[in-house]
Amino acid sequence: MKDSLHICFGTMTGNAETLAQSAEERAQADGWTTHLLNLCDVKPTDLRDLRQVLFVVSTWGDGEPPDDAADFWYGLEDTALDLSHLTFAVFGLGDQDYDDFNGFGRRLDERLAVLGASRLHDRFDADLDFEDTFPGWADAVLAQLDSRRGNAPASA
Ligand SMILES: Cc1cc2nc3c(=O)[nH]c(=O)nc-3n(C[C@H](O)[C@H](O)[C@H](O)COP(=O)(O)O)c2cc1C
Question: What's the domain range around 36?
């Protein structure tokens, strides 16, 4: 059975979406079946059916999620879902000049872990040089996924 990888992005001005698309291209080149999702189209309960998810999200306002990711986030804050089947990694886009640097990416990473999900790879808090830092993070995450592929549960 082919392996399936979901890549979810939350964005205001497109940076996270562009990176998510590049992660999808890399993953497909590695043989993954990918699903690229805007968080505006994802409900927390959808995570029950997913196994491996990369989140590429920016932070806005004063440490807030992008508008399109707000419903997903507030639902995730309220839920008691068991996500122990889920492995994930978060790449956050932010700007160190803001007080709550990468606040949303940090809180998303923490919340998923509290709900029982396992980190594939450490969260990365990217500054405005995200185009330079993302490729290395994506390579490391994909290498981690490849190393797990033989033992992965049936794909969702
Ligand atoms: C009005 C505004 C508010 C922002 N607030 C934050 C913030 O609180 N924390 C942070 O780390 N970055 C903040 N940023 C930086 C954005 O996260 C950064 O520009 C990011 O690359 C945007 O990615 P996107 O195009 O995917 O939304 C803010 C940027 C703007 C313009």
Answer: 4-149
**Residue 29's domain is classified under what CATH number?**
3.40.50.360
Structural domains counted in the chain: 1
User: Where do the DSSP E strands lie in 39-110?
Assistant: 52-58, 87-93
60 lines ligand 1 (CB under 6 A): yes
With beta carbons less than 8 A apart as the criterion, state whether 18 and 65 touch: no
User: Residue 45, Cα to own-chain centre: how many angstroms?
Assistant: 16
Nearest protein CA to atom 31 of ligand 1, as residue = 60
What pLDDT digit, counting tens, does each position of 104-130 carry? 999 999 999 999 999 999 999 999 999
The answer to the question of residue 156 being in a domain is no
Asked if residue 113 has its Cβ within 6 Å of ligand 1, the reply is: no
